[in-house]
Write a structure and sequence with these properties.
CATH class of the largest domain: Alpha Beta
Number of domains: 2
CATH topology of the largest domain: Spore Coat Polysaccharide Biosynthesis Protein SpsA, Chain A
Number of helices: 10
Helix content: 25-40%
Order of helices and strands: EHEHEHEHEEEEEHHEHHHH
Shape: globular
Structural class: alpha/beta
Number of strands: 10
Radius of gyration: 20 Å
Strand content: 5-15%
Strand order of the largest sheet: 3-2-1-4-9-5-10-8
């Protein structure tokens, strides 16, 4: 199936019979040079995918020039035509892999290259070792989910060895997914637009009876590289996020409330999140009037829209600034 809006010549994007069953897609948004570094890092893996599809939420004209430096039988391109948010682009990538008969698909972000040269090889070996008919995917980093508290829980350093079952593998954490989950469970919810789409999808995979695993030793290496071994996480009472990232708070609050009420039928957790959000609204004023006004506007808007089910792209995102990579 050729990609719509392909920058490559006609018929060069068709998947042939002799291609292996492992491909990748990378979601990008107006960061062509960062994307190139990630593509190169993936192709330089000890066991790279045979094909990478770039799924573009942006409109940077340099993208076509950059991608044409690669062979058309190694790289494909699809423009979403607008900023469809991560879940919209991810849904397209998974569906594309499934329709083109790939068994496994690497789900990547443009600014999160693998941190070791053998990350993909180790994850593919994990799939072979587990030999679990109910395996949905594997990743380099994962977390557990506490349904009682409605919160993610960090794995202890002491748990990071051999194969570890987890509840969530987030975007950017080198998720390799079984593509037939597109048929068996469905696709990520495009209406979430931004934030918690990976959590919602992973929890749906589990509710359908499928499992997620990480290579514990690999995750320990990732923590070491990020300087995150032997740390104690504490939840801050006063919001610590920079003011230019507070729009993310709107989406995370809205999406959490919506999915707990409407997808998982846990209104108690939605109410719990609303209560915590209101406490944040009060403590945010301690960072100044301007911060407090901005924080409350986004936070209260997220609560209201989550309960009303006002979904999709309701607030324009502010482009992310590249920071030092971090893994939980």
């Amino acid at each position: 199936m050729p990609a719509r809006n392909s920058i490559f010549p006609k018929n060069e994007f068709l998947v042939t019979e002799n291609m292996t069953k492992f491909c990748a897609f990378i979601v990008t948004f107006n960061r062509p040079h960062i994307l190139k570094n990630t593509i190169d890092a993936i192709f330089n893996q000890t066991q790279p995918p045979q094909f990478i599809l770039v799924v573009d939420n942006g409109d940077d004209p340099e993208m076509a020039t950059l991608l044409q430096t690669y062979s058309a039988d190694k790289i494909g391109y699809h423009s979403m035509g607008e900023n469809a948010g991560p879940p919209g682009a991810i849904a397209y990538g998974i569906q594309w892999a499934y329709e083109n008969n790939y068994q496994w698909v690497y789900w990547g972000d443009d600014d999160d290259p693998p941190q070791t040269p053998d990350t993909l090889e180790r994850l593919l070996n994990l799939i072979k070792q587990k030999d679990d008919s109910k395996i949905a995917g594997v990743g380099a980093v994962g977390v557990r989910w506490n349904w009682q508290k409605g919160e993610l829980e960090r794995l202890a350093d002491s748990d990071l060895h051999d194969i570890v079952k987890v509840d969530m593998i987030a975007g950017g954490q080198h998720f390799i997914l079984r593509s037939d989950m597109a048929e068996k469970v469905g696709l990520p919810n495009k209406d979430l637009f931004f934030g918690l789409d990976d959590l919602e999808y992973c929890l749906r995979l589990q509710q359908a009876g499928y499992h997620l695993y990480i290579d514990g030793d690999l995750m320990k290496e990732y923590r070491h590289l990020a300087g995150r071994l032997n740390i104690q996480q504490r939840r801050a009472i006063i919001p610590t996020a920079p003011q230019n990232t507070l729009w993310r708070r709107y989406y995370s609050t809205r999406n959490y409330i919506f999915m707990m009420r409407n997808v998982f039928h846990r209104s108690d957790l939605a109410h719990r999140e609303m209560a915590k959000s209101l406490i944040r609204c009060l403590t945010a004023w301690q960072r100044g009037i301007k911060f407090g006004i901005t924080f409350n506007r986004y936070q209260l808007g997220g609560i209201i829209d989550g309960y009303l089910g006002r979904m999709g792209r309701t607030i324009l995102p502010i482009a992310k600034v590249k920071t030092n990579f971090r893994q939980d």
